[in-house]
Amino acid sequence: MYKIIAVAALAISAAWASPNGAIAGTTPAPAGAYAYIGYPNDGQVVPANKPFKVWFGLRYMGVAPKGVKYPNTGHHHLLIDTDLPPMDQEIPSDRNHLHFGAGETETMIQLPPGKHTLQLLMGDDMHVPHNPPVYSKKITVIAR
């Protein structure tokens, strides 16, 4: 009976470890750390088919390039029109998952007309989310 309770408790805690139920990576994140998009704002209209700036914010944590393993640091990944990836694996690198492994804190992107979502996710020195994962709220922008 006690084994069943212990297994159930482990399963519940693993599900709480990340937003999609997967166990998070092994690199610890500092307590209370969070990422945010400083610009554009949620619901903002941005120019369609023209570059515009996206500014990355981070609190209670530092930025370090890919491959640099230093406590309480990571680098940004911008998720465009997608949900958070599995938290226990390397963040994909494709048109929906942009990597900023040089430690960048802003970028210029271009979107086609329509509604789009943007979200930041911090990765460790090997592009794996921290434990607990550090990510921003998902915002919506309208490209017109």
Question: What tags apply to this protein structure?
Answer:
single chain; 144 residues; mainly beta; Immunoglobulin-like; three-stranded antiparallel sheet; signal; DUF4399 domain-containing protein; DUF4399
Describe what you observe in this structure:
The protein has a single domain, classed as Immunoglobulins (Immunoglobulin-like, Sandwich). It is built from one helix and nine strands. It has one helix at residues 2-16, and strands at 34-39, 45-46, 52-59, 62-63, 73-80, 97-99, 106-109, 114-123, 139-143. Strands 2, 4, 5, 6, 8 and 9 form a six-stranded mixed sheet that branches. A three-stranded antiparallel sheet has the order 1-3-7, with no helix packed on it. It is elongated and about 40 Å long. The protein starts with a helix and ends with a strand. Mean pLDDT is 88; it is low at 1-21. Keywords: Signal.
Q: Let me know the CATH homologous superfamily.
A: Immunoglobulins
Beta-strand percent range: 25-35%
Label the structural class.
mainly beta
Low-confidence stretches: 1-21
Span from first to last CA?
A: 60 Å
Along the chain, the helix and strand elements come as: HEEEEEEEEE
Quick structural overview:
This protein has 144 residues and is mainly β. The chain is 10% helix and 33% strand.
Write the layout of secondary structure elements.
Layout: H1 2-16, E1 34-39, E2 45-46, E3 52-59, E4 62-63, E5 73-80, E6 97-99, E7 106-109, E8 114-123, E9 139-143
Parallel strand pairs: 2-9, 4-5
Antiparallel strand pairs: 1-3, 3-7, 5-6, 5-8, 8-9
Keywords: Signal
Protein name: DUF4399 domain-containing protein
Pfam families: DUF4399 (PF14347)
